[in-house]
Amino acid sequence: MNINSNFLNLYESYLFDTVSRRVKAFREKNPERDVISLSIGDVTQPLVPAVVRAMEKAVKEMGEKSTFRGYGPEATCYAYPELLRAIQRHYSLRGVSLKEGEIFVSDGAKSDLGNLSDLFSKENVVLFPDPVYPAYADVNIMAGRRILYADALPENNFLPMPDGRRADIVYLCSPNNPTGAAYDRAQLRKWVDYAKEVNAVIFYDAAYEGFLGEKFPHTIYEIEGAKECAIEICSFSKFAGFTGVRCGYTIVPLELKSGNVFLNALFRRRQTTRFNGVSYVTQMGAAAAYSEEGEAECRENLLVYRENAKRIAETLDELKIPYTGGKNAPYLWLKSPLKGSSWDFFDFLLERAAVVGTPGSGFGKCGEGYLRLTAFGSPERTEEACQRLKLVL
Ligand code: MLT
Questions:
Q1: Could you report the per-residue pLDDT of 182-226, keeping only the tens digit for each?
Q2: What is the pLDDT of residues 239-279, one digit of tens each?
Q3: What are the DSSP calls for 245-293, one per residue?
Q4: Superfamily of domain 5-47+295-392
Q5: In the CATH hierarchy, which top-level class contains the domain 49-293?
Q6: Residue of the CA atom closest to atom 4 of ligand 1
Q7: Which among 39, 133, 246 is the best mutation to test ligand 1's pocket, defined by most ligand atoms within 8 Å of the CB?
């Protein structure tokens, strides 16, 4: 028996797993300390009323013989029409028209970022910003692909652009996790032109689009021609508070091809083989989150997180600590005011303030010396964390 030895090239544990182990060890050693986590981007606001009502109704239907459902509809890869229509509506608000067959409902963006990897050979060269969501790197290390990093630094406003290097797969995340930087229309246009020129496919991670201001594109398909070169991955986790419920979707346009092969057909083949869909109850909840009423309620929750981001930003301003993000994204990316590494700063904050951030180096080598704070905490805990930062920094 031989294992996939590419796994041996990974860090021993996933970034957020490493953070949680270190926090657990700290709690065990210091049971009297009240630890505040502003590390993983986990939501704290409850599901909105429109979603709760839809899920309750769906549960009741599942408990009645006449309305019970088993597997979802095979024709649409187990997605129910209510959810497909709601996603179509969400995109139509941005002037983007999607066909039912282009939408694949999933249990979240992270899964599909990995699932899409099945479609591409290990000889492909991948490119993504550094720093960026660590799953992109890990998935491609597991597959044994060569990775090119595009440095995201203050000099380029943390928004790397095509630089002449050739890649087959490009991952973009806007607003970016962890820096919060967001591509504008002209910049995305350049990435789309690049992808078409070198025959690359863009994996566009739109998980945080709900935080973007109006001047930014919310989907890559707002850029003309993007359907010929981009797959978009999105999630209800952050917009609708579904980190525990689990629902997302991936758009694979019907016209997207690699040579003569349509990627939509390939992904459909993959999904029907390896996946049996998302539960009916969850899909009805997700559909409600994208209804007119649900969207308005979800946006109220996002305001709470925006307020947290503002509060953290004011604190950093007071402390004269340079940072970016927080305006169009739920993350703040700050430069450590201390000498030493990101992990040294992480340890300092944990030990001195019992506040947990995410070490920037976990998102890539350009993240060394930075730390990410999330605005997804509760307002009370965020305020308390800010007070503590002021005491120790
Ligand atoms: C993060 O903190 O980066 C995200 O919550 C992780 C995720 O979405 O999987």
A1: 999 999 999 999 999 999 999 999 999 999 999 999 999 999 999
A2: 999 999 999 999 999 999 999 999 999 999 999 999 999 99
A3: T--EEEE--TT-EETTEEHHHHHHHHHHHH-----HHHHHHHHHHTSHH
A4: Aspartate Aminotransferase, domain 1 (3.90.1150.10)
A5: alpha beta
A6: 41
A7: 133
